[in-house]
Write a structure and sequence with these properties.
Largest sheet: 5 strands, parallel
Structural class: alpha/beta
Strand order of the largest sheet: 4-11-5-6-7
Shape: globular
Number of strands: 11
Radius of gyration: 20 Å
Order of helices and strands: HEEEEEHEHEEEEEH
Strand content: 25-35%
Helix content: 10-25%
Length: 201
């Protein structure tokens, strides 16, 4: 990622791009100047507008008490920063499994993977096999059919069936996908069409 960051920095510098960090676009409307973009901090006008919003900018939340605590994040940037610490990973897709595996590879790191489903059916077979191997080797613990119900500064309460298990954790990494920008686009007058592919067996 270091080389990619260097490239991005170079592109920003070479093209004198003005970037407004920590500023979320909340609505877009037509104006005499073209477009008016209202954000969480200001209002901007532009003759042309490029939407490159993706899904990761609006991660799906758990909706549980304590989720606003600073040690709760929605993507794993660097496994090494959690070395020697304890982490709870929440989710059942490839990003969650890969995050748990990356953390488990760090020396002295304790990892618990919590997923509400009974199997990692959405994940790639290779990732499922790696998780099974890591659990068999004692490098991480898996809690299927479970979900956090409360997050505290040093522990998360995870419910499995009728049982509530306190899991000690210095960090909670939520990999539960993102919210589609449908309402945002529809409010701008953009029509979208959803097409579902046919699974290949």
């Amino acid at each position: 990622k270091e080389s990619l960051l260097e490239l991005f920095t170079e592109v920003v510098s070479r093209n004198a791009l003005e970037i407004r960090y920590q500023e979320r676009a909340e609505s877009v409307s037509l104006s005499p100047a073209g477009f008016e973009v209202k954000t969480s901090r200001a209002s901007h006008t532009a003759r042309k507008l490029v939407l490159a919003i993706g899904r990761r900018g609006t991660p799906a939340k758990l909706g549980v008490p304590g989720e606003e605590l600073p040690h709760v994040v929605y993507r794993l940037v660097d496994s090494e920063q959690y070395r020697g610490r304890s982490a709870l990973v929440v989710g059942g897709g490839d990003s969650a499994l890969e995050a748990a595996l990356g953390l488990a590879a760090e020396p002295g790191t304790s990892v618990v993977l919590s997923y509400r489903g009974e199997a990692f059916s959405r994940a790639k077979p290779a990732n499922r096999a790696r998780i099974e191997a890591a659990e068999a080797e004692g490098r991480l613990r898996v809690r299927l059919g479970s979900a956090p119900i409360e997050i505290r500064p040093d522990v998360a309460l995870v419910k499995t069936g009728d049982q509530i298990e306190p899991i000690e954790c210095d960090a909670v990494i939520v990999c539960a996908g993102g919210l589609l920008p449908g309402p945002f686009l529809r409010a701008m007058g953009i029509e979208t069409e959803t097409k579902h592919g046919t699974p290949i067996h």
